[in-house]
Amino acid sequence: MDILEKLMRAYFISDERPHITVNKSICQSCSSKECLYVCPAQRYTLEAEGIQFIADGCLECGACRISCKSGAITWNYPRGGFGVRFRHG
Description:
Helix content: 10-25%
Keywords: Electron transport, Iron, Iron-sulfur, Metal-binding, Transport
GO molecular function: iron ion binding; iron-sulfur cluster binding
Largest sheet: 2 strands, antiparallel
Oligomer: single chain
Number of domains: 1
Strand order of the largest sheet: 1-6
Organism: Neomoorella stamsii
Radius of gyration: 14 Å
Number of helices: 4
Protein name: 4Fe-4S dicluster domain protein
CATH topology: Alpha-Beta Plaits
């Protein structure tokens, strides 16, 4: 089973409180916008009003938090019972 097949088996339990928040005032000053490129689930998009993050589908890897040198991304573990679920290894 290749990585794409494994990722297709993941499912997500949504929470009304996202585990990641983006401080848009800090984010606006970032010129590299690395979060757009490092997220394997492509949960970040660049819109007219700035970076948008959609929590549903997040793999919870933390790559965005690590790559954000400006500190605009706050990452917390999802509350119990919410977030990504991986099936079949």
